[in-house]
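Predict fold of Two component transcriptional regulator, LytTR family; 265 aa.
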Amino acid sequence: MALPLTAPLRALIVEDEPLAASRLAGLLQKQPQPVQVVGTAESVAEAEALLRTVQPAPDVLFLDIHLADGLSFELFERLEIRSPVIFTTAYDKYALRAFKVNSVDYLLKPIAPEELTAALTKLQRQREAAAPQFDAALLARVLQQAQPAKEYKSRFVVRVGEHLKAIPVEQIAYFASLEKVTLLHTREGRRFVVDYTLEQLEQLLDPTEFFRLNRAYLAHAEAIHDIIHYTNSRLQTILKPAAPDNDTVLVSREKVATFKAWLDR
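Predicted 3D structure, encoded as tokens:
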């Protein structure tokens, strides 16, 4: 049973889906304990403006994580927020266990009425117990847990005569940019033209596996057969299979420190 309060809870809803915001407001009106919605916002900017003007501060914030102009976590970098937060999110619950500590709770969409009631009851108990407020450091850690891992390309489709062939990333030794053409080199020594620049490939490939050696080469770690000290504090890499026309593949001087750190990760 909900614990009685002397006044209705004052809630601020930050949600970029109008239907979801309207549904949440409706659910709050039906709660056993009165909840007054003092404002709604659809973006980080709108939420910031409201939080600067609403006085006194809301008793609880309902924050969607992904908003029209960024992540709601940005609010904690711009403002000192002491109001407890209940996040509304579609993320998997196992990725958000950290939301359960330090006055932080979360609700998975679509929000179930009984889950909302339980979260508000928890909030009421924490208010009466004067529970310590959470901090921005906690939210930063939660953000790292909540963000889905970036997905990198797993294969490239190349043309072989009149046919198309899929090359798994595991079979790629390196990419070489020669005369405005990018060539994919497999570990077996085959070469295929791909319709990407090296700059684009850097974004598409896992940076723990591939390194941009210089303007012309992007290599997989296992394709780097040997590394030799070269002049002017540069490094020469020996690739396997060998670079086209036995090209000397140097690590540019400004990349040497980063390259060493990448190898030693």
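Residues 113-128 form the longest helix (16 residues).
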